[in-house]
Amino acid sequence: MHSNSKGEILNAGRVTSPRCRNVPHRPGVQAIDISETMLPAPGCRSADGPLLNAWFELNYRLQEEASDTHINKTFIERWIVRLWNIVSPRPQCFWLFLARMNELALLCASKYVDCCEFAAADELLVHPNSIFLYIDWGREAVFRGNEGKRGCIPAEINPGPLMPCLYRLLMESGYITEDYLHSIAHRTYKINRVAAMLKELGMAGTEKIAVKLSCMNIDERRDFQSRLCLFDRRTFNEIGRALHLFMLSGRVDAEYVGKYLRG
Prior knowledge:
This protein is mainly alpha-helical.
């Protein structure tokens, strides 16, 4: 198994599933096919094999569906509800998957801001979000704890903006590394800073940005573009790979899983 420069989960073996035909990949390296390569060998599966298999599929499905054209507030909310209504094999799986949802929220908000769609960004950053009102916070078995014990998420939080709520949940889980939490805070701050800059410049849409760029020389244009968010999917892909590796081994290695999950 390999990963590309963006951290996407890749496999050098043969892939025959039609689901992977439209996934971009380098020549000779193809995206993983769940049915052939993502699942542990039959003799290595634990008693939770069917549940793990479902989670390999879930992780793959998110990777497949989370294209740039699909990512929006509704898409993120739908996947959060989906996550809350299933049992995960281990608590770490739940929190890594929620971290992937957080990455999509960051990516979505940053693109809204870069395109001067400030009202849409505020839906994620500022305005209270009703999605958490529909979650049954009191139910058990969000994940299976050690030795078969049932586990649940932290106590109910007051409904607030989606991104701050996701950050608080990850921070209070006790499973997510300080470095990753710092990364979330830093990128959220940058989104707000870029929004303030564009508003101050009177930017009300991509058309005005295009006009402004057309009046700049090459160096000025590069400087302006460097001050935008321009986030990519690298961290989203890396966390997906970390979740995949953790489900395979159950270990927190320093190179991949340990970047996001406490040991």
